[in-house]
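Let's study today's protein:

:::
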Amino acid sequence: MPTENYKFPADFVWGAATSSYQIEGAVSEDGKGEDIWDVFTKEDHRIFEHHTGETACDHYHRFKEDVKLMKEIGLHAYRFSINWSRVLPNGYGQVNEKGIAFYNALINELLANDIEPYITLYHWELPYELYKRGGWLNPQIVDWFGDYARLIAERFSDRVKNFFTLNEPQCFVGLGFLTGEHAPGVQAPLRDTFEMAHNALKAHGKAVQMLRAYGKQKLSIGFAPTASMCYPETESAEDIEAARKAQEEADKANNSGNSSNTGGNSSSGSAMVDQNALNNVLKNHTAEDVAMLAAIIECEAGNQSYEGKCAVGSVVINRVADPRFANSISGVIYAPYQFSPVASGRFAIVLARGANAACTQAAVDVLNGYININALYFHVYDSSVDVGGTVIGDHVFY
């Protein structure tokens, strides 16, 4: 499709993003506790040539130089992650004030150079002490993460208004605990990864609640998922089938062959998902879980601003290369309907406010491209949208 059909929105924010372990160094300085990457990178046969993040870019000591470089290259925003174990060495309890001081100094330096700070609460740096207590498999992590989010809100939200809860949950669950490629290098049973995804979802919701409750100004809160889309080169049956197969492979790469991301990639209609294992987790959702998981978010990394409710198992799909989307939608969110065991081919889709009929139809086309849909439940904010289904209030049934 011609590239001239696409352009960045006028309010698009140009910036850069990092994770703490990748750049900070100082892994054992000033009271920081160990995280799973500190341990993982010291194990044999894990990392190429035994590289570690012990020094990395030495950002912990050279952040002022780094911010100066950011300004020189014209960045207007910088998304960085807080290392959970730098501010809470055990993951909970005693606060490390020297860690807090570092992030305060970084935030102030960014603002002094007209660079808007964006904080990611979790970019895979699970405190090792929490890992030893079960980590994402332990339901207590919901409260641990909530308390951590409260601390961050209390200390930094007077100056920072943009927050992300989790970065690429399908990676830290699937690659960290299913394939074992990432820290902590575990190859757990598939069912366990669904439990972890369930807990990660709840932790996200809890963090949103805490940020809202203890934020010192109006905050913009989102999470940073990842996804891939594959398109046929032509409309021939051969190319369409090739794109379908490529999408399945991409889903395996993004989600380690299952829906174990917090965004629960819903290739659930395919053979990649162990539906029984997923159902065993979904059936345990409580009313409290649903309330927590239906937290409002306003933004996703890499997409336009979005405001809507995220359902259990939802995932943001990258903007589709289709002009019908124009600038009226930042992406598509799809999820198992009503937080219950998923009936074959039944999904809920949420579109941004103001999505027009063509935009809605494009979403249908996207899903039809790689999910076998027997029946589709469509939820749109604009009840005037009609793409051929029967409109009942704000619900469109096919």
The two ends are 29 Å apart (CA to CA). DSSP finds 13 helices and 14 strands in the chain. Confidence is low (pLDDT under 50) at residues 256-273, 296-356, 366-398.
